[in-house]
Fold this sequence. Notes:
There is one protein chain. A hairpin with a 5-residue loop joins strand 3 and strand 4. The protein is α+β, with helices and mostly antiparallel strands. The protein has two domains: 2-37 and 196-230; 44-178, CATH 2.40.50. The chain has a five-stranded mixed β-barrel. The protein is built from three helices and seven strands, in the order H-E-E-E-E-E-E-H-E-H. Helix 1 (2-43) packs antiparallel against helix 3.
Amino acid sequence: MRHGLVLIAALLAAALTARLGVWQLDRAAQKLALQAAVDAEGARPALRNTDLADAALHRGVVLRGHWVAERTVWLDNRPMDGRAGFYAVTPLRLTGRADAVLVQRGWAPRDPTDRSRVPPLATPADEVEITGRLTAAPSRLYELGEGGGGAIRQNLDPTAFAAESGLALLPLTVVQTAPAGADDGLLRHWPAPDLGLHKHYGYAFQWFALCALIVGLYVWFQLLRPRFRRQPA
């Protein structure tokens, strides 16, 4: 009776851990498919001002408009290349349209002696053309409370910012990948999206290893070890 219960428990535990390992591999396959879709969207021809009705995440864009420089926001605690600094976000009022789009223009270092000081930023008053890709709202960091206004912020909610600024903002934002005209001094070494593939593969390895351990322990303690004990000295 006891050996039968041990066998059933071992089989259930091995089946469960093996299934969890397969599930993690399935999650990794889904992430790979998502990455392929992102790459395919990014490889399509770039959209222009008049094409934004067909806009989708990760699509390339080449847009023309005028910077709304007085509405520039600096997102704090955004590292790049291992250094602390800001992401500069400026609305771009689109040429030939009544709306605007938030543009994550690039990164600038923070003054270590004065956290309230924003870096100088060259912002042409004339019409500019920017190259970038469409993305969702700027990434959010953990923040106590609801945050506040001002030039330096922890996070930026496009809907709330549209109401605050009075601008008709598109629901997507643009990550700028090339300077508009003269170099503005911003870095654009944007991190690639982390799909967590290594995490899923690591979890899968752990579950399969646990499955193998369960089977190995059962074989040793229930099959091999009793035989060694029964052998004559």
